[in-house]
Every structure is written in C-alpha cells, then in structure tokens.
Amino acid sequence: MKLALSTLVFAFAASTIAQYDQESNPFNLAIVSKDQTIDGDTLSACHEGAAIESLCLSNSNSTSKPDPIPATVFHFNTSDTVVTPNASLGAPGYLTYLLRGGNFNVSEAMGLDINPTSNVALPLFWPSTDRAAVVSFDSNDFLNIQNYVVDTVNPPVSGEYRAYYRWYSCTTYYAGYTYVTLSWVLGEGKPQNPSCVKVNVKRVFV
Ligand SMILES: *[C@@H]1O[C@H](CO)[C@@H](O)[C@H](O)[C@H]1NC(C)=O
Ligand SMILES: *[C@@H]1O[C@H](CO)[C@@H](O)[C@H](O)[C@H]1NC(C)=O
Ligand SMILES: *[C@@H]1O[C@H](CO)[C@@H](O)[C@H](O)[C@H]1NC(C)=O
Ligand SMILES: *[C@@H]1O[C@H](CO)[C@@H](O)[C@H](O)[C@H]1NC(C)=O
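# 2-acetamido-2-deoxy-beta-D-glucopyranose complex -> structure
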C-alpha cells in the first residue's frame, strides 16, 4: 500500500511540474469564418482587469474606426517532457502573450474562464499558469483543444485523442468590459449567447 501511494504521489507531482518553456516563433492569430464581416480579422489582447486580457477581434472594438487595434503577437510554449498524442492534431502547449508593464514583463498563458450559468467560456490571459489551458495547433495551424474522453455516449469512452474547435466570436461581458471576443463553447451544443458566430482560429507566423 505504501509503495502504491508513493507511486501515485510521484506520478501526480511529475504531471504538475511539466514545464511549457519551449517558446515558438512569434505569430498573429487570424479568424477564419463563413461570416464575411469577420473572416480574416485578427485577434488583439484587450484589457479586462489588472494583468488580465481577453482576445478581442481587432476590427470590432476599435475606438477610432475604421482603424483596427493592432494584431497582437503571441507565442506557443511546448514542453520537451510532455508526449504529443497525435502529431497531426498538434503538440500540447500554452498560448502565451507577453504583458509589458512599466518596468516588468510577464509571459501569460491563456486559460478558460468558466461561468457555471453559461455554456460560453471566455479565453483569458492571466499572470499565473495555475489556470492555463493546454491547447494545440494542428498540422494546418488551426487552434484546438484535445481530449481522450467522450461523454456523449453511455457509458463514456476513453482512448483516442480527438481535437475540438469550438471557437466562436461573441459579444461578451467580463468585469465591466463589453467586447467582441474569441469565446469557447462548452460541449457540442449551440452557444446560449445569441451574438455568437462560429469561427476557427489560425496561426500566421510574423
Ligand atoms: C514561455 O517560454 C518562455 C521561454 O522559456 C518563458 O520565458 C515564459 O515564461 C513561458 N511562458 C509561460 C506562460 O509559461
Ligand atoms: C490522429 O488524428 C486523426 C484525426 O482524428 C486520425 O485520423 C488519425 O488516425 C490519428 N493518428 C493517430 C496516429 O492516432
Ligand atoms: C520587455 O520586453 C520587450 C520586448 O521583448 C523588451 O524590449 C523590453 O526591454 C522588456 N522590458 C523589461 C522591463 O524587461
Ligand atoms: C466592443 O464591441 C461591442 C459590440 O460592438 C460594443 O457593445 C462594446 O461597447 C465595445 N466595447 C468597447 C470597449 O469598445
């Protein structure tokens, strides 16, 4: 029993110390959508509170239209100790944004802010990686989130990793700020927020 417990503790510790510190070249994120009004738009970091940013559509929240907010440069941090389950679906890692302060810089990882009363989750960059989401870019540079558990059948099955692309552009409200932002819909249903438009997110190296 003692051995089993210490093995478990070790496995848990090993999984929590995975370092996503292999930084990619810089890139922008572009919206791909059937909706012509947003297709080709880019994503920009938008202030949502102290050191917290969402991903705004660059052309949808400009204060000086028609000039868009500049597209933000992002990086993708992978790990040399974490296995890639399926190379064509993409390596696991953190989407990162460098927050520049007056006399400091902090690399922030994107996570999903989940509202228990909505199926629309808000991707946000936070200063701590505690809330970071593990995401991937597939072989066509599309951003996805992967999982190996499928609970839409009874009983749920696990095994093969699948990639999900549940990205939408939605008008969202967070901590007093209303923006048109990249959003993630939880589950396979339709977003309950009526402003949401289906999009995909493509990495374009700069
Ligand atoms: C991403 O990798 C770079 C280079 O190792 C590191 O400086 C940065 O802190 C990492 N960012 C996150 C959010 O882990
Ligand atoms: C990777 O995922 C794709 C798409 O789901 C699938 O067709 C392919 O068989 C997978 N490859 C491996 C090695 O599992
Ligand atoms: C923050 O990062 C930018 C771009 O990499 C760099 O030019 C600047 O000197 C950095 N500032 C600090 C305080 O490290
Ligand atoms: C962002 O766009 C939305 C929808 O067009 C608008 O309601 C909101 O006022 C805008 N917010 C800012 C800060 O410009």
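# post-check
Residues 1-14 have pLDDT under 50 and may be disordered.
The longest helix spans residues 2-16.
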